[in-house]
Amino acid sequence: MYRRDKPIAFKSSVSLLANNLTCYINIEKGSLNYASVHRYLVNMVSSTPDGSQVTHKQVMCKEPSAAQQGTSMIIQAKWVTLPARVVLVITSIKGIQIFEYDGSAIMYWHAMRDHAENADQCNFGRGIAGFGENLLCIGSQTGEIMVFSIPPKGNNVALKDTLKGHKSAICDLTSDKNNLYSSDDEGNIIMWTLQGSQIQQTGNIPGSGDPVSSIGVWKSVIVASYGNGQIKVYNAKTGKVGAVVNAHARWINALSVAKGTGLVLTASEDSFVRVWQLIDGPTPELEFKFADCVTDLQLVGAQFVDDNGKAFAVTGYDSPDLIFFSQS
Amino acid sequence: MSLKTLPLLFINLGGEMVYILDQRLRAQNIPDEKAKKVLHDIVATMFHQKFVEELFKSQPLYSKKALRTVFDRLAHASIMRLNAASMDKLYDLMTMAFKYQVSLCLRSKDILLITLNHLDAIRKFIEDVPNLKHLVDHVFKLLIETYAPLSNGAFHLIRQTLLNFFQDMHIRVSIFLKDKVQNNNGRFVLTTGGLLPWGCQVPGSIRLFDESGKEAKTASFPSGGNYTIAQKEGSIEMKGDRVTNLGKNMYSISRPVETSRGRTTTTMSDIESSTPDPLARAQLDLLSHLIGNKMETKKMSFRLNLFKTDEEEEKAAVMQPIDPMVAESQVVKIDATKKKKNEELSRIMGELTVEESRSPSGGDDLLELMDSA
């Protein structure tokens, strides 16, 4: 179904973090953009659609006040596409940074407060998703989800709301129009809905202790990947489970959904990347489509490049390679 | 970043150091009494109660440079002396061994079992010294108190923090190359198939449920390997079966460790290593204070050389970059046997020799080392 294409190498290696690859197609400029975290910086690659021209860039995490820069461990980097604007969000152990999509200018810096009652824990952001017209949601170690409003232009970003519901660290967030889905370290999933300007919790799926490393949504299907190698598929309205898959032999680090076709991509530390087809319904289903092993690479990032899932890219720990697959 | 990572990093690297030194001391026929003294002194320093208690406080990881300095000092806590080039080899071996263990462990929680394997082995080394046994037991208690209650997610964060620390280290180790667990480019071999993590099912099945939550259909897909389910979870009891072999002593008498240096792989500039770390400094001061108390035994000291000849050692020292962290870019090989060497191995293989210090200035190496670190 897919064959391997020529890889592109980032400027430096990829870190072992969940969801460590983000893609963005800039239609205006005709460029394909990829970004991945290397320890304390983000490697970006921009390529023409035919791959003939490739430009590199590195975005450092800068702290506005400190003289030193770039030594704090980055947890996640993600492009968020809102109706009016695309931003690059980087979370590190020091805080949250929001950049213009190309990493050229920083728009907003949110320092993460150390929680006095829990000083033996680093509080950092993990789980990033756009939501509604202009909202950006970012999960945290404490389980809270911060909701920022992003203006169509300028730097007037504001923290609007903090959603409380999770009792352990957020792993991933995903959204679909006015619905937001959040997952945590204990395996719990919470569904949220935007009603007017209020965000309400509308349901939850209790977990069993294995973290939900990554979560995606397509039509009325939630698909979640777990630390124990399983994938589970739920009805997004009722929370009922439709399918349980023993999918991988190790921790699943990344999951990506092709919004146009319902194809799902999963990548694990067992070095396998697998593609599945979601089937919508009262009890949603899932079919196996494709698998390949990327020899000796613990996979940490996987993203469909386009909405129809015609091509995808994966990254692995300690390697700079961005490995491409496309439909034959 | 997990703030609970440092104790695991320190104890496991220290454990690897003890394995390597023990093997070399024996292979080089260092008198039993002296060899024992070296290991006992190192364990006593490593697990000094006050130091260990500092270590277990929640804190970020040290910079690579600071951690390296800690081990430079630890290696010199006794009557044995290493020059900078030899110390590099020792440190490269320790770090690659622990990187291998953290990379290959089946699930993140196994890092605790790996640590207990190291601690079990250290306990055997000091079995006949009641004072030291007491220190090891104290570390065991702290480990269980700190790590037993942690969730899978918290352990995963610890593993991510460790692998972040070890990222871009691709030093080749000959014992790994021989066992075919490492490739020539320095990357570890990942096998498909084999034992699954505790609690993980064999990949390859899809179960579909109906609206009442009953299993309606099943389907299967190729798993890509021959997997077996874990029958037993590793024990964290004082004398339990850890199940995993990671963290056990891989250097037996019949498999001597030999190291050598060559030039390959990437050199990364690492801004982290040039940033001073105030927290680490405070602990370093404590450690050096502890070590400083037992510096009076200079006269029976001996020097451990990881190269064939003094000339080679000097050459290596000249090639040595000023920043010890660039040692990451060097190649170190441990050969499993002395007899059968393939061309490439022998080309870059040196020999580890231990000899009595020939000059009275042998003890100065340590001071030099501390200055340069």
| Overall geometric form of chain B | globular
Helices and strands of chain A, in N-to-C order? EEEEEEEEEEEEEEEEEEEEEEEEEEEEE
Content-based structural category of chain B: mainly alpha
Distance between the termini of chain B: 26 Å
Task: Please state roughly what percent of the residues of chain B sit in beta strands, choosing from under 5%, 5-15%, 15-25%, 25-35%, 35-45% or over 45%.
Answer: 5-15%
User: Which class of secondary structure composition applies to the elements of chain A?
Assistant: mainly beta
Spatial extent as radius of gyration of chain B: 22 Å
Low-confidence sequence ranges of chain B: 258-276, 292-297, 321-373
What's the end-to-end separation of chain A, in Å?
6 Å
- Give the proportion of residues in helices of chain B: 40-55%
Shape of chain A: globular
- Average pLDDT taken over every residue of chain A: 93
* Helix count from the secondary structure assignment of chain B: 13
Largest interface, C-beta closer than 8 angstroms, per-chain residues: A-B, 62 and 58 residues
Note down, in words, how this protein is organized.
The complex is a heterodimer of chains A (328) and B (373). Chain A is an all-beta fold and 328 residues long. Chain A has strands at residues 2-4, 8-9, 22-26, 31-38, 41-47, 54-60, 74-82, 85-92, 95-100, 106-111, 125-131, 135-140, 145-149, 158-163, 170-176, 179-184, 189-195, 198-205, 212-218, 221-226, 230-235, 241-246, 252-258, 263-268, 272-279, 285-293, 299-304, 311-316, 321-327. The model of chain A has no long low-confidence stretch (mean pLDDT 93). Chain B has 373 residues and is mainly alpha-helical. Chain B has helices spanning 6-27, 32-46, 49-55, 64-75, 84-104, 110-125, 130-147, 152-166, 174-178, 278-292, 310-319, 343-347, 364-372, and strands at 80-82, 194-195, 205-209, 215-220, 227-228, 302-305, 353-356. In chain B, the strands form three sheets. A three-stranded mixed sheet of chain B has the order 1-6-7. A two-stranded parallel sheet of chain B has the order 2-5. In chain B, strands 3-4 form a two-stranded antiparallel ribbon. At the A-B interface, strand 22 and strand 26 of A face helix 8 and strand 3 of B. Strand 22 (241-246) of chain A pairs antiparallel with strand 3 of chain B, so a sheet runs across the interface.
